[in-house]
Amino acid sequence: MFVLGIDPGLTRCGYGLVEGSFQGVESFRAIRAGTIETDHETPVELRLGQILVELRALLEETTPDAVVVERVFYQRNAKTAIPVAQASGVAVALAAAANVPVRQFNAQEVKLAVTGYGAASKVQVQGMVARLCGLAEVPKPADAADALALAITYFMVVRSEQKYPLESHA
Predict the structure, then answer these.
(1) What is the mean pLDDT of the chain?
(2) Statement: the pTM of the whole predicted model exceeds 0.90
(3) How far apart are CA 17 and CA 29, in angstroms?
(4) Which of 120, 108, 122, 121 lies closest to 157, judged by CA?
(5) Which residues are catalytic?
(6) How far apart are the first and last CA of the chain?
(7) What pLDDT is attached to residue 72?
(8) What band does 75 get if pLDDT is binned at 50, 70 and 90?
(9) What DSSP assignment string belongs to 81-144?
(10) CA gyration radius for the chain?
(11) Which long-range contacts (CB under 8 A, 24 or more apart) does 133-142 make?
């Protein structure tokens, strides 16, 4: 199964495609990772348009089985949070329009799934991404490593949901 993680941002939007399964040991393969970068001097609507075009091409090229987008949980600076939320909306809408299942996780959920500790540092998360994917070094830039962590989180969470399904209370 292939999962595309997206770490939304207006200046740098990270992406990472991971191959994995829900069976056996936690073994993942990083297929592709990188960033979509936009010029901060370009108007916001054109930057969002660029992200839309490049993410659409990435979805068409990689044909993931699922997409994971980081959920904007909390940021002190609204000036930063709003553009991140806009880029996130583009990613979620594109995946939905392509009929690809979409999940969202906040940073704490990613830290917990990847390291086992919800308050782990970015360095710890990125180190575990390299370890879980059998990489010799941490993927660069950080946005790409974060996107790979999102994809890995999908596998960890779904595996747990399958193993311990919630009972419905009808």
Answers:
(1) 92
(2) yes
(3) 9
(4) 108
(5) 7, 70, 143
(6) 32
(7) 83
(8) low
(9) HHHHHHHHHHHHHHHHHTT--EEEE-HHHHHHHHHS-TT--HHHHHHHHHHHTT-SS--SSHHH
(10) 16
(11) 133/18, 133/28, 133/29, 133/30, 134/27, 134/28, 134/29, 135/30, 139/16, 139/30, 139/33, 141/12, 141/14, 141/35, 142/14
Q: Are 2 and 101 in contact (CB under 8 A)?
A: no
Query: C-alpha 71: how far from its chain's center?
Result: 9
Residue 6 has φ and ψ, to the nearest 5°, of -130, 120
Query: Which three-class secondary structure state does DSSP give residue 43?
Result: coil
Structural domains of the chain, ranges and CATH numbers in brackets: 2-163 (3.30.420.10)
Predicted confidence at residue 79, as pLDDT, reads: 75
Token pair of 124, please?
């710890």
